[in-house]
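Expect sequence, tokenised fold; for instance:
***
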Amino acid sequence: MSIHLSQKIYVAGHRGMVGSAIVRTLKEKGYENIITRTHAELDLINQAAVQAFFETEKPDQVYLAAAKVGGIYANNTFPAEFIYQNLMMESNVIHQAFVSGVKKLLFLGSSCIYPKLAPQPMAEDALLTGLLESTNEPYAVAKIAGIKLCESYNRQYGASHGIDYRSVMPTNLYGPGDNYHPENSHVIPALIRRFHEAKESKLPTVTIWGTGTPRREFLYVHDMAAASVFVMDLDKSIYDQQTEPMCSHINVGYGADVTIAELANAVGAAVGYQGNIDFDPTKPDGTPRKWMDSSRLNRLGWNPLVNLNDGLQSAYQEFLQRTTK
């Protein structure tokens, strides 16, 4: 095994949807020295515990995929937990990575970092140019802080200590390991669950909130994991050609969006629901469009492989496996 593949890699958040996909991708690429810790084994909010972990393990690389996440209901109900826990995890891991001599780190953010009314598609330089969506502002602020932590450590210690901390901002993700909770899930897992239950109950109609006209972009989680490893492994000179010191993060998107109506029909087809799909225009639509500009990443040589229909089929099969256990 090459020295490159033998590096010790710590994946924080390996039980989450993205973290578990990153572990699978690293193993597929031949990386064997991967270390993980469950929350019970290592509480990333505990500064002393994180310090002890890094002093003992001394990883060469870190993928920071750990986060407190949830849908609109959870963000609205627990704003203090969302900002505090995410800020603490990011601060502890990034700082202790630096202190222990980690040269390469990848921080995973979210598309919610961009202003609510950002021009579409949302480019990296739209960051901090307008007001955030109020429903998830605490979470977004924490994710912005993670980006700025990486930028700040690079600016102050990059040249003197040889560190290279990068950030990737995914669009809406779905796939194996997703959260199907009836109140805390995002749109695709929520629709998969609703259509599955409607099929099982032989309901004639499923009604979706809103007009169905808003447009959203979705990326299969295995593509996100592949992009994460791709960005981490890029030569610094190549990466720096597409970034700037004060705008160093990279968007990761599918490159196209769909209406909520098109998404609902695609999910219904993947699940095998045969009934009608209606929309309730008296309910809120939310932001008219959320679409990421991923041209920086595309210029670096990465493009997604899994289309929406194939990804939904795979996601539904994994949902079935989890619910029938």
Observations:
- The domain at 9-175+217-255+291-305 is CATH 3.40.50.720 (Rossmann fold).
